[in-house]
């Protein structure tokens, strides 16, 4: 089966549309009829208690898992079980909750690897080292250096990825994802392990990425960061939608409060 079905006439303001998405692992229901849409150019947050299904949703959206039911449309095209490499080629990139860098390669080399999804030179050109191949490799390196500067770690380009600080490794993973020229960037816990100063710098970086035309989908446990950064937020609990809306409304939603804090006591029932 083709990775994508023919595009339908899509809402010009919608980049991703998910309908009735479900995923099981044996008897465990990880996702159940999840639905949402992301507007082009927004920062869309995804939150929920541990085990709510957030990372499973990311894995389905990026081709790591196949859904059992439901549909995903990207820019109006139905994604029918595409592979992760095809997802990247279509314009969706992601980072991971657990950083996945090539530890023994330099920061520059890590970003250059991400850029290869947009290259055109074939095996023959790589073997013969044709003029076109050399020019393309030079362009890849230039772009990789630009992206290292963009995320603020250009001075560490020649260092091995494993020698970078945790915060800089997060930035490097974002730079590698940006090297694929995504139109939708999905970030899984981008602020994990960062201190307050690093989170502030991350917030500025994500704002710049959005300003430069990339739509963002973010899973994040730092609810304060999500509420201060995202245009809209979806809350999952036990693999289901329980709330969606602007951050201020989400913060006041009793279903969200209960999911995070447990059921509130009855009025007059004591503290």
Identify the notable features of this structure and list them briefly.
271 residues, alpha/beta, Rossmann fold, 2 domains, six-stranded mixed beta sheet, 10 helices, 10 strands, 37% helix, globular, disordered N terminus, disordered C terminus
What does it look like?
- With 271 residues, the protein is of the alpha/beta class.
- The chain has 2 domains: 1-91 and 182-271, Rossmann fold (3-Layer(aba) Sandwich); 103-180, no CATH class.
- It has helices at 54-61, 84-90, 107-115, 123-128, 131-150, 166-178, 196-211, 223-229, 247-252, 254-261, and strands at 14-25, 28-39, 43-47, 69-74, 77-78, 92-94, 184-188, 215-219, 232-237, 240-245.
- The strands form 2 sheets. It has a 6-stranded mixed beta sheet, sandwiched between helices.
- A hairpin with a 2-residue loop joins β1 (14-25) and β2 (28-39).
- α5 (131-150) packs across α6.
- The protein is globular.
- The termini are far apart.
- Mean pLDDT is 87; it is low at 1-11 and 265-271.
Give me the CATH architecture of the largest domain, please.
3-Layer(aba) Sandwich
* CATH T-level topology of the largest domain: Rossmann fold
Indicate the CATH class of the largest domain.
Alpha Beta
Could you state the order of secondary-structure elements as H and E?
Answer: EEEHEEHEHHHHEHEHEEHH
The share of residues in helices is 25-40%
CATH superfamily of the largest domain: P-loop containing nucleotide triphosphate hydrolases
